[in-house]
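pasting for ref. prot 1 ->
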Amino acid sequence: MNTTKQHPLMTRAGGREGRPGPAVGLPLGLAALVLALAAGAFSLVIAGAVVLVAGLALQTGAYRWARQDLRRTVAATPRWANQRLPHAVRTVPAACVEPGDLLVVRQGELVPVDGRLASASTFDEAALGAGPTPVRHAAGDTVRAGATNLGPRVEMWATSDASDSAHTALRHGIETLRVTENEAVRALRRLGYALGAVALAAAATVALLTGDLLRAAAVLLAATPVPLLAASTIALTAGASRAARRGVLTNTSSPLAAAIDRRARRCALTAASLTAVAGTAGVAAALGQVSAPAALITRAVVDVAALAVALWALLPPLRSPAPSAVADATVPQPRKPRSADQPEPAPAREPAIPRPRPWLGGGTPDGWGSLY
């Protein structure tokens, strides 16, 4: 079985169920609209409703965009295989394929298991992190499960079963991501409920002390949980999706995986830091320094900025990964200056050239043997 380690983002990212922002932000927004309606500010109610609906739509679109590569990988799960028999081709479940079976992959079908090709063909391996460019494989090359055959019908020998394929390891990593993400979502949701309670208490205090319902509505409109809750989870999910696109979701030793991890964490922290802007606007609204329309505009700007920063994790890292030790060894290093009392180094000896002698079993025309 494949025992590769999980990507760091797998234990932190939010996903399909990790949407604590709407669960907290929607009640606060509705309470603000009720206060504005009680104060007779109908234009503010209409504008606030538009901002709330647009914010929910942006969050939903951001979640789907952040998970696009994870969904593509799951959608590329092969379920059926065409097994070559002596006189026919039989369609069987991919889980029934055993190493050594001769399989047939038609044009447009998914490779069911890892195998060795009997003839050349072109495959789309975007779901496996190979990029959008089709890959040409010659006869005898190994092709991974989950790749789509873009060429004519091709035959292949299975080298593993469905449980040991590279695509199964990647899919198991995504399933682990979906299971572990709920813990972070529950923690963020508890934090969001606490912040929402503080905002409601502040709005109630303002309404009781001043009697100004619009000022209380401004406090609730400025108290948006999107930067801290929704945007931070979207950033981590986008990082995991980026890692899946590059094929390093299950590889922690890759410098590219570490770079993607750093980018996702940086985007999550930057998006969460925008909560300070919303908090400052809420305090100013409570003191009467910010009107309700200005608080609504601040909420819209902060929400859009936080989601944009979160989706920045989908882009490639600005700093390329550190080169490997092999690459460093090939770079010529500058010579250190030699002191006056240091003796002159001995010249390097040239390697001895072996004497040509024919190989056992026959030689080539130039006197050297050949292994082939």
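and prot 2 ->
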Amino acid sequence: MRIISISILVLLVINGCIATKPSKENEWVKLFNGKDLNDWFIKIHHHDIGENFGDTFKAEDGIIKVRYDKYGDFNDQFGHLYYKVPFSYYHLKLEYRFVGQLQKGAPGYTLRNSGVMFHSQDPRTMPKEQDWPISIEFQFLGGLGDGKPRPTGNMCFRVPKWYMKEKLMNGTVSILNRKLMMATNGSKQK
């Protein structure tokens, strides 16, 4: 099994999709070369794939940095960084940390909130106005400085609103008020 190693400095929000494929037993595969993001796709809400709006993602000092300082107002421009090679059998190892303050106009829940999107939708299939990829997120939450513990390592299932309306409302599966509702032979189950 390949084991993945990557270091990430998170300044506000990063949602990188990372997955791997089988290889030699216990061989480390470095996803980040420490120099550039040539092996990665960038997708930022309201922008085409590959457009690194506001220089959001940078390879600097041997780490990946995520910054929103050139944004002005945030305008829901959530950014995602995807490794270009899809994988399916993996261990993920990474380091992360949060620095900085909440970006102007960003939702309050995004403060020191990040994650890794697993089994994610290919970014090349995402429309410009899709805010989140269809994926499962392992969520990272940093402390808020108020002395209260904040749980981290939550698992979140991300499905864009348009997908829920157009793709899942097929009579067999639907999502209502964040609850998965399943219809089996006409009967509803929660």
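The first helix runs from residue 161 to 166.
The mean pLDDT is 76.
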